[in-house]
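Batch manifest, entry 17 of 40.
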Amino acid sequence: MALSTRQGLIDYCLRRLGHPVIEINVDEDQISDRIDDAFQHWNEYHFDGVERAYIKHKLTGSTLTLTGSATFTAGEIITGGTSGAKTTVHKSSSGTSVVYEKPTTAESFETNEVITGSDSGTTATIQSISKGDIENAYIPVDNSILNVVRVFKFGAIVGSKSDGLFDVDYQFALNDLYNLLSADITYYSMVKTHMNVLESIFRNERPIRFNRKTNRLYLDTDMDSTFDIDNYIIAEAYSILDPATFTEVYDDMFLKRYATALIKRQWGENMKKFGGIALPGGVTLNGDQIYGEAVQEISIIEDEMQMKYELPPMMMTG
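Output type: C-alpha cells
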C-alpha cells in the first residue's frame, strides 16, 4: 500500500527494522528528528525533491507611520527635523502613513522626529518606520525556495518597452511578412539569431545574489533608479516539494530507504552503551553491530543518490 502520511512513513521504517516482532529502542522525538533529516537531505539533493517555480513579487516602498493624520502631496520632498533626512513622497497621502522609495540623502529618518513637506508645509511626527524592498535593497524569499536561478529582465534593445510599434519583432513582421510568405524562412532565422546575439550583449541578465539561509534575494543594481514601487520582479527558482500538498512524496523509494537507515543508526547509538550485556536466554546486546551496519547502509545510499538521483551542479564562471 502506498504511503501518504508522515506517520505512515514512520510505521513503515519501524516495520523494516523488525517492529513489532523486535523492540526498537528509539524515542518518538528521535524518530521525528531522523525523518526531518531524511527529508532535508532528500530535498537538497534528490531531483524529485524540488520543482522549478517562478516567483512573483511586488516591490514595496518604505512607510513612515505618523502619530496623527496628515496630508502630503505626491512628489513633494519631506525633511526630517532631527536627522536631516530627505525623501520624495511616492503618492498623495491623507492619513497616518507616508510611502516613499528611500531617503535621497545619506541620513535616515528617526522615530519621534518631526517631518515637514516642502510644498504643502504639512508637519507630522514619526511614530515608527518600516523599510520596504527598495530601501532594503533585497527581496524577501519564502523559506521553501532552495535556489534562485535568474531574474527576468523585461524590455527590448530597441525602444523602452518590449511591445508596441517600436518592438523589433513587430517591425520585422510588419515590413517583411509578405516576403516570408513567398520564400523560405532562412533570412528570418538569420536575423533572429543576430537579434539574440545583440540581446545577450546589450540586455544581459541581472546579476543576483541569493543564500537560502538568509531568505533574501539581492539584485546588484541601483534599486531606486531601476525600479519603482509596485513594480513586479519575476524570478526563476527551485522550490522544495511540500509533502502536505504532494503526499506521494512519502512513498518515494529513496526516502523510505534513507529514513530507515537513519532510524537504525539512532537505534545503534542508543544501544551502544549496553554492548556485551548478556540477557536471559543467552541473548547478548550488540549495539555496535547495529550502528556499524546502519553507517554502512547510509554511506551506500548517499553514494547511490549522488550518482543516480542528484541534479548536475550548475556551472559558475567569472
